[in-house]
Amino acid sequence: MTTYFAVIEAGGTKFNCAIMDGDKNIVAETRIPTTTPQETIGATIAFFKQQQGQYAFSKLGLACFGPLDLETASSTFGNITATPKPDWSNTPIRQQLMQALGVDVIIDTDVNGAALAEYLWGAAQGVDVAIYITVGTGVGGGVVINGKPLHGLVHPEIGHILVPDKHNVKCACPFHDNCVEGLASGSSIAKIWDAPGETLSDEHQAWEVATDALAHMCHNLLMTLSPNKIVLGGGVMAKPGLLDKVVAKTNASLAGYLTTSTPLNEVIVAPQLGGISGLYGALALAM
């Protein structure tokens, strides 16, 4: 008898919702725009209620944008907390889904989910320390250590690592000066340069600013967590040549300090799961 899982990749732009089996096959799916919590979560619940008659599932994996309250003893466990996404702060998303669907909801950050998926099935299979970074609308990072997503005081917020101000550019983050997200995310690039990144030429200063920030981020991660793999994904990283530039700048920043037989371009790599890493991450949580 086939076991089915409900999965959600809950992003700031859209909710990717699906029913998947244990072999990673998608048997039903939909995409719901991320508007208000009432509209988006309501439509999500309606989709899964439609599927429950045909595909019985007892678990829902929720790989969600954050920040999240992941402290299991907390009265607000599973809530989205102080997010810059308008209207979504303090949304009890896990509780709403559990009550409406009557199933167990396993929640983690979208990037912790993607990191777990890349560890299980993708570019970081079986390594001791795997980091997944998405550089898209925002910049988020997930960490998997010995097969388990990293939690601590809260969860990794790698996008908000501070980096040097080398270009005298106004950071677009509403919380911090000179953090990675405020300099390298798609939304920040559009705000800083008053144009979407896809419209900017390869020679535009935006890419120097973004790759410098990402290289400093990689340097700091290599020095603090000693990852076997740093997987750089997301829409911004789809730009041809950007990954190579980040690797080269990270290598220059390290200045020969790390002694390892693994070339840096085999440590800092692209995802193998591509655009489905988020759904696979939600499946990994549910399983």
Could you give a short description of this structure?
The chain is α/β, with parallel strands linked by helices and 287 residues long. It folds into two domains: 4-112 and 276-286, Nucleotidyltransferase, domain 5, CATH 3.30.420.40; 125-271, ATPase, nucleotide binding domain (Nucleotidyltransferase, domain 5, 2-Layer Sandwich), CATH 3.30.420.40. It is built from eight helices and ten strands.
CATH class label of the largest domain: Alpha Beta
Describe the global form. globular
Rg on CA atoms, Å? 19 Å
Number of DSSP helical runs: 8
CATH architectural name of the largest domain: 2-Layer Sandwich
Please indicate the count of domains.
2
Structural class: alpha/beta
Q: Major β-sheet, in short?
A: 5 strands, mixed
- Low-pLDDT runs: none
CATH superfamily of the largest domain: ATPase, nucleotide binding domain
Record field, number of beta strands: 10
Q: Helix proportion of residues, in percent?
A: 25-40%
Distance between the termini: 16 Å
Strand order of the largest sheet: 3-2-1-4-5
Q: Could you state the order of secondary-structure elements as H and E?
A: EEEHEHEHEEEHHHEHEH
CATH topology of the largest domain: Nucleotidyltransferase, domain 5
* SS strand fraction: 15-25%
Q: What is the averaged pLDDT score? A: 95
